[in-house]
Amino acid sequence: MCRDFKILIIFSYILCFKVFYINSKRSQLWKLSPDKTKIIKGTDPQPLLYPKEFSGKHSITGDPLFDIVDTERYGNSWIKHPQQSCLDCVEEQENDTHSKLSNGQFSETLDCGKPVNFTYFDNLVGVMNRNRHPVVPEPQAVLYFTKNFGKSKPDVKNFDIDALERRLKKAKRERPKSIQLYNQIGNFWRIKGDASKAIECFRRALAASPHNAEVLLSLARMLFSLQYLDDAIYLTRRSLEVQTPEKGAWQQYFTLGEIFKAYGHYQEASIHLRHTLELNPKFEPAHLALQEMEAIPTATIHMYTLVIIVCLVLGVLLVILSSVDNSEDIKPQRHFNKAMAMRSLKGISMTAKRCKRTY
Q: What is the pTM of this model?
């Protein structure tokens, strides 16, 4: 009996659910008449079908009340802008988009994607201030894109930057997550002078490969051009530590030579530059840097020694003069003591004579 009762309850529940589902599918839409005097039957609104180009901006809900509102993200809040939900407007926007694409106004941007959250080199001052750097173009960064880099002097003035940009965009479409490509795009923005985009590319590469010697050296060269010398020395030495022996480290030694030359430490700079020429004897910039340091007059190098000697001589003279003054102050006191002693002796002798006479 209880079993039959449970079956009856389940059957009635299924039947009611089916009835409600059918009624919901066959529900009638009602609306007000144009003169707003009575209620008449309405028709289901047809959903507006937008093309794929506008799927990110418009909501395809089928409800005109939501389709006329365009909601966009701005900062930490949502801002709504009224839009016309008509097929004619959509067609006009679609035609405008196709015309801009055909005219080349919507071109592919050459970047390395979204900035990464963290790298092991974010504590460097030059990296922390990456959004505050001025525009400092580096034409010498063109050397990284020449075939005979380090062997012959390339023609930097006639280098085609636009062709390089097209090649990098093509390489980005083919292998968008390449660490070497991130390094090349960063060096491209070094040529343009956009430090923010270049550092973001180097950060993205270092986030994936923190021990990449080429990326570390590229970032060091850029911070050196921005006069962050301590950061540049740290990154160059780190690149020198992880550089593989078969590739050679002449670029790292040359960078260290240039940095120490900018510091004024000519002896240490010449040591690194000579290391560069030992590994790459035909590298002309190292020869020029050594010649510039050798052309500096030796008097300027020994100027500090001369200043120290003069200071020491003046110090010794001051000590001697002070000792002479003290001796002059002491001498009258000694004469006074002798005079007093003579007077005391004369007094004693006179008293002794007087005593003899009385006796």
A: 0.57
